[in-house]
Amino acid sequence: DQQVKQNSPSLSVQEGRISILNCDYTNSMFDYFLWYKKYPAEGPTFLISISSIKDKNEDGRFTVFLNKSAKHLSLHIVPSQPGDSAVYFCAATYRGNNDMRFGAGTRLTVKP
Amino acid sequence: DTGVSQDPRHKITKRGQNVTFRCDPISEHNRLYWYRQTLGQGPEFLTYFQNEAQLEKSRLLSDRFSAERPKGSFSTLEIQRTEQGDSAMYLCASSFPGQGYNEQFFGPGTRLTVL
Prior knowledge:
By secondary structure, chain A is an all-beta fold.
């Protein structure tokens, strides 16, 4: 029962361009969404989050957009840098729930 | 280093053996989580502690798995009679309610290989 889906296993972009990573969810109860970044041999690192009361949250080069009607969120990275190359996981949860559901991840490669 | 630490980082064992992993959360975090991650998948929730109380367990956590957090600080995850299907990365995370909705900080994981 995969409630959070990242349909693109990989994405390659040129340095300086925009990276757009997508995530879809099925559970209408989800009201909080997070993006984690994972480098090899390390655990996931929190990147940015968004509550369902918002449709956009921005932090420096990273912006997350939420479309509740489409049950879709996306992470924009602009400009992309080679150090952004990592696996990005989308995660979702809801108030009172401790079971955070993750997508399968998208491997981003930023080419110099 | 004040992050979440896990020990060991790698464990190779033979099928049928028992293994135990340890997680030390960030010191002021009262919530601790265990996840399992297999190749090509995201982390899957296993169980959750608030202080020393185990408040939630996933149906993924079979009877061969047991987790403890005896003093509300470090936690251990034991797998008895390991099977090849247990091979995975076991991740520990911790959080503190004051840090927002459910922002969890992850350790580096323990990679288990069952031969």
